Amino acid sequence: MYGYGEGLEHVAVHLALAENGRNFSPWAPFLLGGVDRFAFWGPNDPFNLQVLLFRVLPTWLANGSHRFLQYFVAIYFAALVAQTRFGLPMGWSAFAGLLHGCFGYFTAVEMLVHPGVPLMIWLLDFLVRARHTLLIALLAGLGYSTLTSFAQSDPYLIAFAIGWFAIVKSSNGVFGLPHILAFSLGLVAGDCPQIFAVLSNAPFSQRTALPPEAITFSLDGLFYRQLHFDYFNQDPVLRAFTMNFPAPALVLGCFLALAARHRRPDLAGVALAYLRVFTLFALLSQRWLLLLAQSELSNLVPWAASIGMSRFYAVPAAFMIAMGLTLIGFIGWRGFAPSSMARRILVAFACLFIAGMIIRPKVFHFQTHGLYGWGEKNYQVAALDEVKQTEREPFRVASVLPLQPAYAYGQGLETADGWSNLYPLAYRELWLQVLAPLFEHAPRNREIFDPPNGRPQDHYVFLGADLVNPSVGTLPDEDPKIAIREGFDVSRRFNLDLLRMLNVKFLLSEYPLRAPGLQLAHAPKERPQWPLSHDWATGYVTAPFPPSDQRDSRSRVVRAVSHYRRALTRMSRGKDIFIYRLTGSMPRFRFVETILVAPNKTAVLDTLASFDGPHHEATAVVEQSEAYTVPARGVFALGTIRVLRYAPDEILLELENPGAGFLVIANTFNPYWRAEVDGRHRALIRVNHAQSGLLTYPAERLVRLVYAPPYWPRGALRWTRPPTDSRSDRGLTSPLEPRHDPGPIVVER
Q1: Mean pLDDT, rounded, for 511-521
Q2: What pLDDT does 5 receive?
């Protein structure tokens, strides 16, 4: 239960998607509000075995069962491929399977994608050898899709399957191509909801602004070497070994295989098989080649330039390394006939190596990822359940790192921050304004979220990087030892007024906070005694023990045992955190009095950043290009709003206002939301850079908001907009100038 990533977001995603029947919804509002549910980063395919496990089993059992299945599939089918495809004896086949498990180090985020590579190869080989019909191959691909998601697997698995049959299994490659294509079609059909969502949302996601990866003349600039960056990279020993051992060993194996082909005709087939496996491994390791191919694709699809291409290597790398090392070991064992004593030594070394590769990650991660984030209780914060039950209107929360947002959306709360891969570009730009005070006082944080050169961390939006880490989190004049008692000042880190505008009603933290307008709603029974330093990207606890001046005189072993005992007792009671109410938080739906028009997005963001709470409450800011649908009014009437229904893809509001009004909807703007007012369609306007606005007229009562992406049945309606107002001389802070009403909204079927 303490594998890497389980405490960050992967398990919490499943718990979030299973909350309130939202699992099979096309959209979940608690994931950065407005991000398409199927496009969420990570294991999010609703038609997936992993999702089913987390819906029907307790969290600890679902995660444990899934990890067992991962290793069983990885080891068993890798051994089966070694035996049926390469003709290796049972002992050597078992060795290949165990190597695959060692180099894989599977956790929840991979689902059965990485461990399922040999299963896919064995299945395709079986379909080709048995000469099954293409319909059977298509159904097999459809069934296999329940083990994968598009974002994690489809392009990489299909490319690898074609490469395997074309290079490694070249004798039957032409014959097997129709089956591969039929299997791929079934796989894509099973994952098509994600595919449609990604293709629909990527063009206006933050990925459109990310620069492509650079090709540099260095070892890592030209080639892929890292198997699992997040997993193995934390341990210096495993990082050095997994990056520097496999490729040189496989290159040296080529000379051994070539020598065996000439000296031992009986091993010529195995040697040829090894050379083919190495050729495929070498081809997928060419980082420069894949990036050049990506560059060509980005000429047609610009956002494709920001996709991480390392999975083309990372998904099948552990399997190819395991097969290659096993084949070359078998050649050396049979071809060069070491003595019996040497064989015993080699067998003992292999056993120790496998045991070390299995045990070392668990031992290394036990304290940092286990002791501080262990078990099902880690996802049960009783205070958050109380907050959810007492609040009647929609609201958001935000988590101050090192507390991960997963604890909030894992319990069904909507978060303003979180892990995602396709959140809108406008939301990210607005979030950078939220972090502007942090960048001013701790400039190193900008290198993480908005570097002047290179790519930012694109898969999440967080409130800062860490509170206590001197390199990224602490303010220049802040002492963490004092702040742990008096509270960390968040008013100098974040624009709290912008958080209020985003409907953030509560801030969550592992440490006490302080700021004007921040009220303590809940404090943990056991307050932290010293600040723990966390890695901002992985949650890794880098300084778990108290500072030297706070340690008692007992021996190091006794202190460690006492520390572990207290931590285990604390975790057995469930996670407990600080919860602060952010006073003056804007409601999710509100009427405003005034609309300001800014000439461009920079002016909109600057204006929003300069507003205080009352200005945000009374005013909406519209970019010039969006202002053509706003009628000639300077001041709008206020009224009341009652939420009748709030579902993932439908919102129903009851209005009561005496005159014409302008309704601001604090959900993140998405062009696929549609609005009906008293049954008549009306256009939504993007306001406040990343929110929506809607005009209302006197006596109108009922507003219905529907999420209708183009791949969903409700998306069959095509909407057209009136011609854009071409005037560009509008001022930044003056109310709207009088002009004619834009006329009716046109709807085409």
Answers
A1: 95
A2: 63
DSSP run (H or E) holding 193: helix 192-201
What is the Cα–Cα distance from 541 to 4, expressed in whole angstroms? 12
402 prior amide bond cis, ω within 30: yes
| Among 136, 135, 144, 84, residue whose Cα is nearest residue 116 | 144
Q: Are 77 and 192 found together in one domain?
A: yes
| Residue 452, pLDDT score | 86
Tell me: pLDDT of 684 over 60.
Answer: yes
Evaluate whether residue 36 is within a structural domain: yes
- For residue 179, being part of any structural domain is answered with yes
Written in H, E and C, the secondary structure of 117-160 is HHHHHHHHHHHHHCCCCHHHHHHHHHHHHHHCCHHHCHHHHHHH
The whole-model pTM stands at 0.88
pLDDT at 737 over 60: no
- What tokens appear for 725 in the block? 């107002």
Q: Which two tokens stand for residue 492?
A: 């100098």
Same domain, 338 and 413: no
Contacts of 7 by beta carbon, 8 Å cutoff, 6+ apart = 369, 372, 373, 374, 378, 404, 406, 539
Tally the domains of the chain.
3
3-state secondary structure of 232: helix
Residues 633 and 564 in one domain: no
Q: Rounded to an integer, what distance in angstroms lies between the CA atom of residue 234 and that of residue 238?
A: 8
Could you tell me if residue 3 is inside a domain?
A: no
Q: Vertex 647, ends 643 and 651: CA angle to 5°?
A: 45
The partner residues of 590 in beta bridges, in order of sequence, read: 664
Helix (H, G, I), strand (E, B) or coil at 43: coil
Arithmetic mean of pLDDT over the chain: 84
Co-location of 566 and 604 in the same domain: no
- Full residue range of the structural domain in which residue 471 is found: 380-547+555-582
Q: What is the mean pLDDT of residues 27-44?
A: 53
- Count, residues in the chain: 749
The secondary structure of the chain in percent helix, strand, coil, rounded to multiples of 5, reads 50, 15, 35
CB 495 within 8 A of CB 436: yes
> Of 318, 337, 371, at which residue does a domain stop?
371
614 CB neighbour count, 10 Å cutoff = 10
The C-alpha atoms of residue 637 and residue 505 are separated, in whole angstroms, by 25
Is there a single domain that holds both residue 576 and residue 629? no
Whether the Cβ atoms of residue 654 and residue 644 lie closer than 8 Å to each other: yes
* Beta carbons of 422 and 202 less than 8 angstroms apart: yes
281, 275 Cβ separation under 8 angstroms: no
Per-residue pLDDT reduced to its tens digit, 661-682: 999 999 989 888 999 999 999 9
- The predicted-structure confidence for 127-140, as pLDDT tens digits, reads as follows 988 888 999 999 99
Query: What is the Cα–Cα distance from 183 to 125, expressed in whole angstroms?
Result: 12
Q: What is the pLDDT of residues 393-435, one digit of tens each?
A: 999 999 998 888 888 888 888 889 887 777 888 999 999 999 9
Is residue 343 located within the same domain as residue 384? no
Q: Confidence class of residue 549 from pLDDT cuts 50, 70 and 90? A: low
Domain co-membership, 331 together with 387? no
| Domain boundary residue, one of 582, 600, 626 | 582
Query: 454 with 367, same domain?
Result: no
Would the pLDDT of 560 be above 90?
no
pLDDT at 719 exceeding the cut of 50: no
pLDDT of residue 746: 29
The answer as to whether 4 is a domain residue is no
